[in-house]
Amino acid sequence: MIKEILEKTGALMEGHFILSSGKHSSRYVQCARLFEFPEYGDVVGEELAKLLKKYDVETVIGPAMGGVILSYVVARYLKARSLFAERENGVMKLRRGFFVRHGEKVAVVEDVVTTGGSVREVIEILKEYGANVVCVGSIIDRSGGKVDFGVPFESLLKLDLPIYNPEDCPLCKQGIPAEKPGSRGLK
């Protein structure tokens, strides 16, 4: 069902893409496209909330941009608070008066996990506040099972999409122009 939603909304794309990690791929998932259609965003958020319900979550937080809407929808179904972290001068932070209490049970959600970098940054922020990160959830896990957050990781769909280091990218070697559809600048 999730893959069909991604295809129907144009969220699953083909071409030559530079991922937020700096790696390259011939396939890209732009989950913002599925959130153009609130009825699909609600389905995805509700399904992820069902997976995370067992962790007794009090607050859901997502990294900007991919986790902002997802956090809101998942939190609504869990009857929890919704926050997001965003970059300020390249550093992920809680802003806009957002806070978490010491010991608060928090779920970190992200639209797509490839290397898990943004999620790890959010987890570090939460640890500084003394929050209890109980789980991580994503719409798509494209890590190939390689990511470990130190807490349970739930996803709605596992996609094994090709990922290349820039120096080994066959698309670059073919001279195919790359686009960077994500929201984060390269490191």
Automatic annotation (TrEMBL):
5-phospho-alpha-D-ribose 1-diphosphate binds at E110, D111, V112, V113, T114, T115, G116, G117, S118. This is Orotate phosphoribosyltransferase. The lineage of its organism: Bacteria, Thermotogati, Thermotogota, Thermotogae, Thermotogales. Homodimer. It comes from the Bacteria. It comes from Thermotoga petrophila (strain ATCC BAA-489 / DSM 13996 / JCM 10882 / RKU-10) (Thermotoga naphthophila). Transmembrane segments: none annotated. It catalyses: orotidine 5'-phosphate + diphosphate = orotate + 5-phospho-alpha-D-ribose 1-diphosphate. Belongs to the purine/pyrimidine phosphoribosyltransferase family. PyrE subfamily.
